[in-house]
Amino acid sequence: MGIDPSKEIVWKCKLWSELDRETTYALLRLRAEVFVVEQNCPYQDLDNKDRDGLHLWAEWSSQPVSEGGEALAVTRLLPAGVSYPNEVSIGRVVTAGNVRGTGLGRELMRQSLMALDDHWFGVPIRLSAQSYLQRFYSDFGFVAEGDSYLEDGIPHVAMVRSAGRP
Fold first, then answer.
1. How many separate domains does the chain show?
2. 60, CA 20 to 30 Å: which among 52, 74, 86, 95?
């Protein structure tokens, strides 16, 4: 399907407590669709951290997820002290299969970094990157830290971006 140039994409960012039922369902559905089904990786996605963070997503302006539309891309942004003691984090980074290769993943990262700056400016950012995406994240100022490791059976590397804009 890909991105339909006649449709406008809208970015939204909300706390867990601000999400309605349809939006929550759409965001969790996309995460499960990619991480659990597509990547064949059964893991505990609902890890009690969702309630502590911001949820950023893209949707079609004409089909909001709150009205049953699809989430096109999603990230979960957590304050320091939730996943890492001194860094905020970007996690659950996912783009729907039907819009991959369109640049939406890069825009998802740009939007995520802007949201982190808006909410927790001046705090370093940490993420756990699937190893094959190390170059992608390095384009946004992230630097690999330490050796690669297996997370849920998939090779990952810790990456950190220092406080402020690169």
1. 1
2. 52
CATH number of the domain encompassing residue 103: 3.40.630.30
For 50, residues 6+ apart whose C-beta sits below 8 A from its C-beta are 16, 76
Q: pTM score, two decimals? A: 0.90
Domain extent for 47 = 9-122
DSSP 8-state secondary structure symbol assigned to residue 3: -
> Which stretches of the chain score pLDDT less than 50?
1
Q: How far apart are CA 35 and CA 76, in angstroms?
A: 14
Q: What is the 3-state secondary structure (H, E, C) of 56-124?
A: EEEEECCECHHHCCCEEEEEEEECCCCCCCCCEEEEEEEECHHHCCCCHHHHHHHHHHHHHHHHHCCCC
Burial class (CB in 10 A: 0-12, 13-18, 19+), 75: buried
